[in-house]
Write a structure and sequence with these properties.
The complex is a heterodimer. Chain A is an alpha/beta fold. In chain A, 35% of the residues lie in helices and 25% in strands. Chain B is an all-alpha fold. Chain B is elongated. The chains are: A alpha/beta, B mainly alpha.
């Protein structure tokens, strides 16, 4: 039995029409109060996993528990414990923001006098107090996403599912949503299961990251551990005079192993980047080499994805298309 | 119905009514179209009232029953399209994530359609009365007409809901509209069945349940209390409701895959 605020899956599978396995035996463990980033390209199986964990789609096989309840057997108990903002911002353009919240509050079973208070508090928290009585059809994409989040929180869930919550948002709206997600986890102890195809989002927000591709988990861990697993920082130096390339190479080899880089440049992997960079710069200066470009590449989650799958995450989804329709 | 279910139904019905009130087209067409058709027919076909055996003194009296049926057809469209839109936008999934019961989702939507249908029916009746129609069955008869109108809305609204839940498509629901209108025109809406000359038309009108629904309402307007016609109309109405609501409930169960 999983802990009450967490999520576990064991060999979870969802098969669609034609035998396509959108989710192909995934094992996950999300601890209470953490932000779990579920990262993968379009069509990797992220949304199908979320639909199963939120009880909207029965698993084909395997098992999953959310808040200690089995998603296949205890759907109502799972739903009472979770809030979810799914991939499509499902709002009624003819209703106002406040009407959405009050409807959701009533359907969630909040007491009559609690509904307006809770609605107003959430509208204020997501910055929609002024727009609360305008029809949602006139909201911007960012406002809709924020209302979507408020709706998911109306009943004070212990676990929050956010399926690609920042897709299509501008930088400002995205940052505001990240801040709110962080606050929920930090101040209210809400467990957040967040799917994303943005590397930065997973890197910045998540305590743990699971990388999914082709319905399978290809890597899992903290962002730092995942990046450390695949290697060290790499420096790349472009001499101002191409004739100095040999001298630069000999100088850099004192600090790390040579590796491939941009043509015309010299690259090495640094076993430890702390302090070494200063030494590298000093050494190049001592040798009297003029440098036109100096870059430090630290490993990214994309490098992790590349190492595990042989493809870059950026644009990887276009090879697979979108997830199939349910059987 | 327990209080929790009642709350769910009331809120969903309120949303349905609110949606309709905020879409002028959803209000104006069901009100204007049947009234315009009634005015055109009453003016153009009034001489039909002089045909021997015609059951009413004026064609207006005879035809006033038809708008109540037309209003129900609009209810089918509105209920169906609202549900289809909720499926297409994912709003149904949002509702599915709440503790709301499936039956509340359906009855809430339909209750809204029936409420709007009742308001339309009051307008049809008032327009008829202002134009000089006398309801032979009196005030109680007029109230029964409103009950019939609401039941028609429930039955045909359920049909629209079934179509929406089965297909998940607003276009499919729209496709239902011409079919229902053909049913209306192939009924005794515009002439009494025994005065329809073409055999094939009379046979189809006799087999068409819509004829009996219209005849039940019409009997209250033109001839007073006719227990046999009313009982037949009510039985068929309740049969349509049972079939359509049952089919819509099954389609909802299939649509909501939630565990």
């Amino acid at each position: 039995m999983a802990s009450e605020g967490g999520i576990t899956t064991d060999a979870l599978v969802r098969e669609f029409k034609g035998g396509i396995r959108a989710v192909d035996g995934i094992d996950l463990r999300v601890e209470p109060g953490e932000i779990y980033g579920f990262l993968g390209p379009n069509g990797a199986g992220k949304s199908t996993t979320v639909l199963m964990l939120t009880t909207l789609l029965p698993p084909t096989s395997g098992r999953a528990t959310v808040a200690g309840h089995d998603v296949a057997r205890d759907g109502p108990k799972v739903r009472a414990s979770i809030g979810a903002a799914l991939q499509d911002v499902a709002l009624d353009p003819l209703l106002t923001g406040r009407e959405h919240l009050r409807l959701q509050a009533a359907l969630q079973g909040l007491a009559r006098d609690e509904r307006p208070r809770r609605s107003a508090a959430l509208l204020d928290r997501v910055g929609l107090a002024e727009a609360a009585d305008r029809k949602v059809g006139g909201y911007s994409g960012g406002m809709k996403r924020r209302l979507d989040l408020a709706l998911a929180l109306i009943h004070g869930p212990r676990i929050l599912f956010l399926d690609e919550p920042t897709t299509g948002l501008d930088v400002q709206s995205r940052t505001a949503l990240w801040d709110e997600v962080r606050r929920l986890a930090r101040d209210e102890g809400v467990t957040v299961f967040l799917t994303t195809q943005y590397l930065e989002e997973a890197d910045v927000l998540a305590d743990h990251v699971g990388i999914i591709d082709g319905g399978r988990i290809v890597a899992e861990g903290t962002p730092a551990a995942l990046k450390a697993e695949i290697g060290d920082a790499r420096i790349e130096v472009m001499p101002a005079d191409a004739a100095d390339a040999g001298l630069v190479a000999r100088t850099l080899e004192r600090f790390g192993a040579p590796c491939n880089g941009t043509p015309g440049s010299v690259s090495v992997r640094l076993p430890e980047s702390d302090g070494a960079l200063t030494d590298v710069v000093r050494a190049l200066d001592t040798e009297g080499v003029a440098v036109s470009d100096f870059q430090v590449h630290t490993p990214t989650l994309d490098d992790v994805f590349l190492t595990k799958t042989g493809r870059s995450l950026e644009g990887a989804g276009t090879e697979r298309g979108t997830e199939p329709a349910p059987a | 119905m327990n209080s929790k279910l009642g709350t769910q139904v009331a809120h969903l019905a309120g949303r349905s009514v609110m949606r309709t009130l905020r879409q002028p087209a959803a209000l104006i067409f069901p009100l204007a179209f049947p009234m315009i058709l009634l005015a055109v027919n009453a003016a153009g076909l009034d001489s039909a009232a002089s045909i021997p055996g015609f059951p009413a003194d004026s064609y207006l009296d005879f035809a006033l029953a038809v708008p109540f049926m037309q209003g129900a057809l609009f209810s089918a469209m509105n209920a169906g399209q609202d549900i289809a839109r909720d499926i297409e936008t994912g709003f149904l999934s949002r509702l599915s994530l709440t503790p709301v019961r499936g039956i509340a989702l359906l009855t809430g939507q339909l209750a809204g359609a029936v409420a709007v249908g009742a308001a339309q029916a009051v307008v049809y009746l008032l327009v008829g009365l202002i134009a000089g129609v006398t309801v032979q069955a009196g005030i109680a008869g007029a109230l029964l007409i409103l009950v019939f109108a609401m039941l028609f809305c429930l039955g045909f609204g359920s049909l629209g809901a079934f179509m929406a839940l089965r297909t998940g498509s607003g276009e499919a629901v729209q496709g239902l509209f011409p079919l229902l209108f053909v049913l209306l025109f192939l009924s005794s809406a515009f002439l009494p069945r025994d005065l329809i000359e073409a055999d094939w038309f009379r046979t189809i009108a006799g087999a068409n349940p819509v004829s009996y629904l219209i005849e039940a309402v019409r009997s209250l307007i033109v001839s007073g209390w006719d227990p046999e016609t009313l009982a037949l109309g009510m039985a068929i109405t309740l049969g349509i409701i049972a079939l359509a609501l049952g089919a819509a409930s099954l389609a909802l169960q299939t649509r909501l895959e939630r565990t």
